[in-house]
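Good morning C.,

I know you're traveling, so I'll keep this short. The sequence:
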Amino acid sequence: MALRDDIECWLTDMDGVLVHENDAIPGAAEMLAGWESAGIPYLVLTNNSIFTARDLAARLRTSGLHVPEERIWTSALATADFLKQQVPGGSAFVIGEAGILTALHDAGFVMTETAPDFVVVGETRTYSFEAITRAIRLINAGARFIITNPDTTGPSVDGPLPATGAVAALITKATGKEPYVVGKPNPMMFRSALNKIGAHSKKTGMIGDRMDTDIVAGIEAGLHTVLVLTGISDRAEVEKYPFRPDEIVDSVADLLPAITGTIRTVEG
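The tokens, ready to paste straight into the viewer:
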């Protein structure tokens, strides 16, 4: 297990760690600025596959957080990276929005409803019964079933919304085929993030707010895990799991001394 002082690269979740709704969490701006000024490799991770990295960078800017789009790694980007390795120049039928569609286009994929290599289901606010029916038929005909993330619900101002995992369950029930899930808690997403910044797991920390995605995936990927209590999981929930994060802190503000220490090490 790496000690915090040994960490040279960082991965961090976005919602619940850096922002809550559209408000920056205290300490987040200082932490990101510290990483940037010291040239510390880092990525902001999110299971959200609706938006492109550019969209998310703009959203963070409105919250007062400056994160270059190349420092954002979404489940859509991780999915496109994985599928490009599997079938370079392949084809896909996609249920999703700009995030996953753009990522797959940029990875050289062709979008088609005719004998695609993959059916890819991502996040969207307008799930179409017609599109779901098409996905079921294509999977039954042999297309491989991929989903960007397993989240069954997503937040909205009016309450929870059905999300990728819920729609995938419908498709699984109709086809008898389980999807391959790329996003958290699959450590695949973390490994692709490490590859993107040239990091080694033994020298990388993961900051997250969810035991069931961020922390378990970080542990399975061999990272130093830090749970912050500004999001989903609290101390009582931690006790429900058979695994533990390396550290539990109230918020990213508590990590600022460590970030300062890392900066001194890098610059010294």
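Safe travels,
E.
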